[in-house]
Amino acid sequence: MRKPNPRNRRSDDPVVKESVMKRSQRKEFDASVPPKPFHIQPKTPNQQLLIDAIEAFPITVAMGPAGTGKTYISTMTVARLYLKDKYERIILSRANVPTGRTLGHFPGTVQEKMAPWLAPLISVLEKAFGKTHYDNLVSKGKIEIQPLETIRGRSFEDSLVLIDEAQNLDFEEIKAITTRLGEGSKLILMGDPYQSDVDSGRALEKFASMCYNSSIQVPVVEFTIDDIVRSDIVAQLVKMFMLNDVQSKTITKRKSSETISRPKEPALLA
User: Fold this and answer.
1) CA nearest to 199, candidates 167, 242, 245
2) For 159-191, how does the pLDDT look when each residue is reduced to its tens digit (9 = 90+)?
3) Residue 169 burial (CB < 10 Å; 0-12/13-18/19+)?
4) Residue 20, number of CB atoms within 10 A of its CB
């Protein structure tokens, strides 16, 4: 005898009923459902200091060489705070200063133009939220890309603001950014003065110094070569480049001093 095909069973069959019930109870993925808050495991004491500073203060400055986890820790902490404390939105921005030769203007919308500049932040947020939920937050305006050119006049209420490559900001841009911060918001400025493409990163250091002198609580977490976690070769390279920069500046200052102190030759009479 042929065995009965289970597909031909009647809808009132107990086996069919149980199968249908299980399928209906199976939860489908919903991009609007946020992931649960997660734990961040710092790899260095300064990474823990950065987490604590972001959680405790409205403005935090993170400075240090490449590979120390400034961007990763800051962005992951912001993602966790968003899931945990019900902030309204996450704002992403950075100084639009190219590294080396530029390819020119990027086509597309503001988000499409800025996305290559903000790729380090975006990739961490996608890891924290999941790609689908991240895209859902962007489409709802919960994650917003803000060009610095149009930041004046805005007020960020209940927002988490991440500013990358802050060493390339001039002082007027820092003034414009920091004075946008409204109630219930946090601002994190991340930068590496040794990789500054403008003014050697002095504006960010000037801002931190002014806050300290004015008794304004803006913690500055300074990472060093010892905090580099990317790889051993990166630590060696950063140390080499920093030493080369110091030597180059010393030689430049010495030549400048010799030029100023050298007496002018007397003019020859015709």
Assistant:
1) 167
2) 999 999 999 999 999 999 999 999 999 999 999
3) buried
4) 11
> Can you read off the two tokens belonging to residue 206?
């000037």
Query: How many C-beta atoms surround the C-beta of residue 129 within 10 A?
Result: 23
pTM of the model: 0.76
Q: Are 34 and 26 in contact (CB under 8 A)?
A: no
CA atoms of 67 and 235, how far apart (whole Å): 8
Sign of CA dihedral 78, 81, 82, 87: negative
Yes or no: say if 164 and 94 are a contact pair by the CB < 8 Å rule: yes
Cα separation of 246 and 220, whole Å? Answer: 23
Domains and CATH numbers, the chain: 45-249 (3.40.50.300)
- Cβ within 8 Å of residue 222, ≥6 positions away: 46, 63, 64
pLDDT tens string 45-63: 999 999 999 999 999 999 9
